[in-house]
Design brief:
Chain A: This is Ferredoxin. Chain A is of the alpha+beta class. Chain A contains two helices and four strands. Helix content of chain A is 16%, strand content 22%. In chain B, helix 1 runs antiparallel to helix 11 and helix 3 runs parallel beside helix 4. Classes of the chains: A alpha+beta, B alpha/beta.
């Protein structure tokens, strides 16, 4: 159970990295990726996955 | 003198234009005449806070803050074009360390540099660690630079103490509505308190946070400029209310900017056919709120990585891969430049005062356009002008009323004829255009469109020349009243 970032849509702004409670998100080549081993879809932290809630491009942070 | 300024600046071409009098716009050509001395001291070298200063001083933005916490209907974060001049657009993101390197490089080559701002491309305060780390580095290396930041205000209130600690004494908040009913048509969502809010809730929270941030900044003694995006049919009738509210809360300056909207930008407004205001509509709204918080009319809506004087962008010259390894800032060059500016400012004011005495009276106000590269002089060839400064002159006063752009965003490949047509359209309502030089062909075409071309005042001070030109026209027509 994890989220992923659709690379072609990522603007590289890093808003998701800042909000992720699990430090599962990092920059790679100007865009951001989610480490599925660390991602919990924010369960136990917040009501909704923070990356998807803050991402400026809809449909970019989605269930893997 | 203007030649010296340009040579001091090395490769820098210095645009700029004209000055405001009385309560016409922001800043004052005379200096402290329409604001308290301690405020003039803060703004006199800040091109965005003083119309007068923007002829002499440069700012730069460093794009260390890519993340944003709200979505605006006029913004699309995926779009970037190197020719595009509008907020939110950058060509490269920087780390705070890279930003310092770039600031050092610009300071070494551009003695006009007075201000370092962080304006995104997202929101400065949605990236607080990067923003404040950058301020920390720059303040230590170049303590003479003023620091400022721009924000949507959502995360402002909790950072006011930090802003104060870093000696940031200018903050801009973008407030395009003070009524959530209207705000909901501008902001589709915000990210706040770990969740996404939409609709009226989003607009209400944003509004409350903006007001709290504004109040706290004012209480902390920080100068606040409010940017409002003018969106015809959405908030044009609301602009006077915004002006009233922000003035009552202590904002120093109100900058009403036109919506930039084009389907090619991929923004919600661009795609849904929401148009921006015409220059005439913008001026009408600005005029209608005059007398409220002081208005800014010289804004160029620059990019979040803009470098140079307002109206120019040297950003491409200072891309990271073009910067030398160890740029060295020489305070002596800056000092020489500051002395030149002091003298120029005094001479410009003297020239204006003399011209006013000579004009012989007052009468019908006329609108003139000026081609200038900066320094407060008419020093640009018509064909090189990408924008014109507009002045209203009536024999005794010269009022800066705005800037009209003569180019077009990111289109390129314009034919000569097309661009001249676009310029004539941009100069609607203008009686004369004051230039350093012009070709015979455009002179003729402009004359056919009812615009007189005047090149008799090449390299002279703008205000004095506008007054002298007005006197000449009115004397010929016999329409001066003492």
């Amino acid at each position: 159970m994890a989220y992923k970032i659709v690379a072609s849509q990522c603007t590289g702004c890093g808003a998701c990295e800042y909000e992720c409670p699990n430090k599962a998100i990092s920059e790679k080549g100007g865009i951001f990726i989610i480490n599925p081993d660390k991602c919990t879809e924010c369960e136990g932290h917040f009501d909704s996955p923070q990356c998807a809630a803050v991402c400026p491009v809809d449909g970019t942070c989605v269930p893997a | 003198m203007s030649g010296q300024i340009v040579s001091l600046a090395g490769t820098v071409a210095v645009p700029g234009g004209c000055s405001s009098k009385g309560n016409g716009a922001c800043g004052s050509s005379g200096g402290a005449s329409d604001m308290p001395a301690e405020i003039w001291e803060k703004v006199k070298n800040h091109p965005c806070y003083s119309e007068e200063a923007h002829h002499y001083f440069a700012r730069m933005h460093v794009a260390v803050a890519p993340a944003c916490n709200i979505q605006c209907n006029y913004c699309n974060r995926k779009y970037d074009c190197s020719n595009e001049s509008r907020p939110g657009v950058v060509s490269e993101k920087l780390t705070p360390e890279q930003a310092l390197h770039k600031v050092m490089a610009v300071a070494a080559k551009v003695p006009q540099l007075s201000v370092l701002g962080i304006a995104g491309p997202g929101d400065a305060l949605a990236n607080p660690h990067k923003t404040f780390r950058t301020f920390d580095l720059v303040a230590k290396a170049l303590p003479h630079l003023k620091l400022c930041l721009s924000t949507n205000g959502l995360a402002l209130a909790e950072h006011v103490e930090t802003i104060k600690d870093y000696n940031v004494d200018h903050v801009t908040i973008t407030i395009s509505a003070v009524d959530p009913e209207i705000g909901q048509h501008i902001y589709p969502w915000i990210f706040h308190d770990h969740r996404r809010w939409t609709g009226l809730d989003a607009a209400r929270i944003l509004h409350e946070r903006q007001m709290e941030g504004l109040e706290r900044l004012v209480a902390a003694g920080i100068l606040v400029k409010i940017n409002s995006v003018l969106i015809p049919g959405v908030n044009d009738a609301h602009m006077a209310e915004i002006n009233r509210v922000v003035k009552a809360k202590g904002a120093f300056l109100h900058n009403i900017m036109p919506l930039i909207s084009d389907p090619a930008h991929g923004t919600h407004f661009g795609l849904s056919g929401q148009r921006g205001p015409t220059p005439i509509e913008l001026a009408a709204v600005q005029d209608s709120v005059e007398g409220g918080a002081k208005l800014m009319r010289h804004c160029r809506q620059c990019r979040a990585d803009a470098v140079g004087l307002l109206g120019e962008d040297l950003g491409a010259e200072f891309a990271l891969d073009k910067i030398e390894d160890e740029p060295v800032f020489d305070p002596k060059v800056r000092e020489i430049y500051m002395n030149v500016v002091e003298q120029e400012r005094a001479d410009r004011q003297d020239a204006e005062d003399q011209a006013r005495r000579r004009s012989g009276g007052t009468g019908e106000p006329l609108l003139v356009a000026v081609a200038t590269k900066g320094g407060g002089r008419i020093n640009q060839h018509f064909g090189h002008a990408r924008e014109f400064q507009l002045l209203e002159v009536d024999g005794q006063s010269v009022r800066f009323v705005g800037v009209r752009r003569a180019d077009n965003y990111c289109k390129g490949g314009y034919g000569e004829e097309d661009s001249l047509e676009a310029i004539i359209k941009a100069l609607t309502g203008v009686s004369a255009v004051l230039v350093a030089r012009i070709g015979d062909c455009p002179r003729h075409t402009l004359a056919e469109a009812g615009i007189t071309v005047v090149d008799d005042y090449a390299h002279d001070f703008i205000e004095a020349s506008a007054l002298a030109w007005w006197g000449r026209v009115m004397e010929k027509a016999g329409r001066i009243s003492a």
